[in-house]
Amino acid sequence: MPLSAAGSRRLVHMRDVQLRGYVRDDGQIEIEARMTDVKSYSMGNLDRTMIAAGEPLHDMWIRMTLTPADLEITACEARMDATPYNMCPQTAPKMERLVGLKVGKGFLRAAGQRVGGTEGCTHLRELLQPMATTAYQTQYSLKNHALDGQPRKDNHGLAPGLLNSCHSYAETSPVVARLTAEEENFVSN
Fold first, then answer.
1. How many other C-beta atoms can be found within 10 angstroms of the C-beta atom of residue 127?
2. Contact status, residue 152 vs residue 145, Cβ threshold 8 Å
3. To which H or E segment does residue 32 belong?
4. Rounded-to-integer distance, Cα 83 and Cα 77, Å
5. In this predicted structure, what is the pLDDT of residue 140?
6. Taken in order 177, 181, 183, 187, is the CA torsion positive or negative?
7. What is the crossing angle of helices 122-144 and 107-115, to 10°?
8. Is the dihedral of CA 6, 9, 15, 18 positive or negative?
9. Out of 2, 44, 126, 183, which could bridge 157 as a Cys pair, Cβ 3.0 to 4.6 Å?
10. CB-based burial of residue 28 (10 Å sphere; 0-12 exposed, 13-18 middle, 19+ buried)?
11. Of 110, 112, 92, the residue nearest 101 (C-alpha)
């Protein structure tokens, strides 16, 4: 369902974020993220004298490799194809500092300690939140569905960590009640 009709306006900025979750042939998970910022008008700055309308101000990539069981980062690389300043790409190699962290409780705080502030890039750090969510979704797919998309026969109940994580997974919600009943029914049979 689309949003309500907008008033008269003019587009000036477009940010696109793409995320993809993969399973590698060796069983590890890879999450790729790309973020682009584009203006609808031409502009310049200290290092780029002309950035034409429609040309990316930012075009940045991150690929994170994780273990499927506990989402520990085993590799992380970043690239910056377009940046506002010539020195911005110096921060991309620092994303390797995320290796060894686990995506889970405290991940964003720990990542900020390694690549935050003047040690990193705000835009690359901003991609870490949706990358973490994409990692969970990819892990869920691996645990709960065969690669052909069919549900696994052992897929029952509420996944650990979901209880009270949102409105639908509130311990008092009808969704949790149904999932709990399904798990109890599976265990008793």
1. 23
2. yes
3. strand 29-39
4. 17
5. 87
6. positive
7. 140
8. positive
9. 183
10. middle
11. 110
